[in-house]
Amino acid sequence: MIRYYFESKQQLFDEVYRRRGGLLSGRRHVLLDQLLEGGKPLTVKAIVRAYLQPQWDLKYSGEAGSAFVRLQARLHAEPEEHALRLRREVYDASVKRYVDALAKVLPDIPKRTIGLRMAFLVGTYLFMLNDLGRIEDLTEGKIRHISKDEMLDHMVEFLAAGIQTAVP
């Protein structure tokens, strides 16, 4: 059946990734549009939260959402050209819009620096969403469980601070 509909396992994988990733990217566009049209002044925290929220919602939407987040993390670790092309196709339009929005809010930070910091943001949230148990290890067992909302709040604070810090 895979060969009949998709010709190869790779094409099946690509279609699954495009479909799920496209929904995620589309939701990011919608949330950014809402921020831009909301009439309130834009803030770095609001932009970061709007970018992260769809990923968080997907992760906690059930087993399929959680599995896709793990799939995403694996694909983001792949250096091969095919993986890079697929990531660009699915995510670049929304990421570039967020970089542009951040550049408007942070006129003293070069756009290239904001782009670099967005790469740090992506790496951070993919690592944290993989539930690798490192929080418990690094806090010497003082944090065994943190709610998804509390984790997102901490991530927004941390990443927003990093994005807007002075350029070295």
Describe the structure.
There is one protein chain. With 168 residues, the protein is mainly alpha-helical. Helix content is 77%, strand content 0%. The chain has 8 helices and no strands. It has helices spanning 2-6, 9-37, 44-59, 63-76, 81-105, 111-129, 134-138, 148-164. Helix 2 packs antiparallel against helix 3 (44-59) and helix 2 runs parallel beside helix 5 (81-105). The longest helix has 29 residues, at 9-37. 21% of the residues are buried. The model has no long low-confidence stretch (mean pLDDT 89).
What's the helix and strand layout?
Layout: H1 2-6, H2 9-37, H3 44-59, H4 63-76, H5 81-105, H6 111-129, H7 134-138, H8 148-164
Helix pairs in contact: 2-3, 2-5, 3-4, 3-5, 3-8, 4-6, 5-6, 6-8
Record keyword descriptors for this entry.
8 helices; single chain; mainly alpha; globular; 168 residues
Question: In brief, what are we looking at here?
Answer:
With 168 residues, this protein is mainly α. It has helices at 2-6, 9-37, 44-59, 63-76, 81-105, 111-129, 134-138, 148-164. It is globular and about 50 Å long.
Give the averaged pLDDT, no decimals.
89
Biggest sheet details:
none
In total, how many beta strands?
0
Shape: globular
Radius of gyration: 17 Å
Number of helices: 8
